[in-house]
Design goal:
- It is a single chain.
- The protein is α/β, with parallel strands linked by helices.
- 33% of the residues lie in helices and 20% in strands.
- The protein has an 8-stranded mixed sheet with strand order 1-4-3-2-5-6-8-7, with helices on both faces.
- Strand 5, helix 5 and strand 6 form a beta-alpha-beta unit.
- Bound molecules: S-adenosylmethionine.
- The site of S-adenosylmethionine (SAM) has 23 residues, from helix 4 and helix 7.
Length: 226
């Protein structure tokens, strides 16, 4: 599949794994979801007012990066989306432990959240750190970055807002660059290949450490909406 094609909606960028949930994660979901979680439902998401910026991270994993960015930037609201329940539980514990009030979580497919809950031109940043690379060719259709994703991101960003992806999978970096470089609605913040220096606000993530241990170079790609 070429990068600019979009697969049928039934093809998801994740596989729901049962995943072991620890007692602490289970308790966090029972106790803290009501404070920081937002249930998926079609219609514009209701978020607290009074923040300078709204940043969305897709596929937060355990939420380490989301929580670190939110702790360093208390005037911005950070909305994290993840389907993996143990990761959401872990993130709730981190939010509580750090006493943050500028993080909200949605446990649902990010594509459907972008389609149905995020208003037009409402986001300052869309962050996609170490998305599943789906390396086998027959799985490329599962990659979250495709034409439909690019359109959703474009619609959701404010003018001047940025899409920022990071990956340790070189061929996926090229795929993402190919997807965004030719789109006249975006300005490339990187070099001719689409790569830029890691922005100072991006923490190092668990999957990044794993990639680096395997000797993979890490690529950051930032595209601003005109
Ligand atoms: C390789 S992990 C990276 C996690 C984290 N960003 C990091 O760097 O450590 C990719 C994550 O994206 C999540 N994910 C994939 N597709 C998703 C989707 N459509 N909606 C929400 N989460 C998704 C997966 O469940 C997984 O936790």
């Amino acid at each position: 599949m070429a990068a600019n094609e979009s697969p049928p909606r039934s093809i998801k960028s994740f596989v729901q794994r049962a995943g072991r949930i620890t007692p602490a994660q289970k308790r966090a979901l029972e106790t803290h979801w009501r404070s920081w979680g937002i249930d998926f439902r079609p219609g514009p998401v209701e978020l607290p007012a009074g923040f300078d910026a709204l940043n969305l991270e897709i596929g937060i994993g355990n939420g380490d990066a989301l929580v670190e960015m939110a702790a360093r930037d208390p005037r911005s609201l950070y909305l994290g989306i993840e389907v993996h329940l143990p990761g959401v539980g872990r993130c709730l514990n981190l939010i509580e432990a750090q006493g943050l009030d500028n993080v909200r979580l949605i446990r649902h497919d990010a594509i459907e959240v972008l389609e149905q809950m995020i208003g037009p031109a409402s986001l300052d940043r869309v962050l996609l750190f170490f998305p599943d690379p789906w390396p086998k060719k027959r799985h490329h259709k599962r990659r979250i970055v495709n034409r439909h994703f690019r359109d959703l991101v474009c619609g959701a960003l404010k003018p001047g807002g940025e899409f920022h992806a990071a990956t340790d999978w070189q061929e996926y970096a090229e795929w993402i660059a190919a997807e965004f470089l030719g789109d006249a609605r975006f300005v490339n913040r990187g070099d001719a290949e689409g790569y830029c220096a890691t922005p100072a606000y991006r923490p190092r993530t668990r999957f990044e450490r794993r990639g680096l241990a395997l000797g993979h170079p890490v690529r950051d790609l930032v595209f601003a909406k005109k």
